[in-house]
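re: ur question from earlier - yeah i can do the single chain one, its not a big deal. heres the input i used so u can compare w yours
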Amino acid sequence: MREVHSCEIFDGEDWKKTLACNSKALYNGMYKLVGRMIAVCLVHGGVEPHFFLERLFCQVCNLQPPVPDLQEIVDYDFRAKMTKIHSAQNVNDAQCAIMEASDQLSMLGSLWHIQTLEDRDNLVESATKFFTENRLRDSLEQFKEGLECLGLLPLMQKHPELFKEVFMYEEKPLLAEDISALFKPELSTVGSNRRVVESRMICFWRDWLIEVEESRLVTAQRIFNIISYIGPGVKS
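and the output i got, formated as tokens:
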């Protein structure tokens, strides 16, 4: 799954990836292959992806995608030009910014003359939608064909609310109970003096974790990082 996450058919932020526009990968059937790999991995209880951008998840599940966002344009140069057009204060400034991006807008079929700021907004929305959706239509269809392996795609489209947490990343704070669950103490015989001391120590440890979580002075994540740094030196 680590290799899938970083493969050539995906682009974007680490935990918000969308499909990349890669004609070679499309020709070689890479989108379909990766879709199959994800399907087989999930059906057999493997690692979950957790890196789909919301738009990509909606496209796969045949849901209405969110309104196109300039931040989803992975081409930094084009995104900067579109942002300049969108932030223009008047029509003249917008027209100048459009001319700077004329080559790319022409390729997307979104180059037209504007007369109002509303025209400017329509142009930006049209170009952004084409860049994030329309140009990837063939790649998406091939990817979905791969996800049909072992019947995964029909289930995703029937129960998207159940698969959302499987495919999309949601940052969750590390809680005291998460850290406590990482440890399995090796206890002495029941009834022995050592067992009494050990049981008391476990209670103190768990109480302290809860206090840390509630105080917010030191986060549970910070404690976990320290434990990870100490590594093999920690004993249950």
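Strands lie at 10-13, 16-19. not sure if urs matches, ping me
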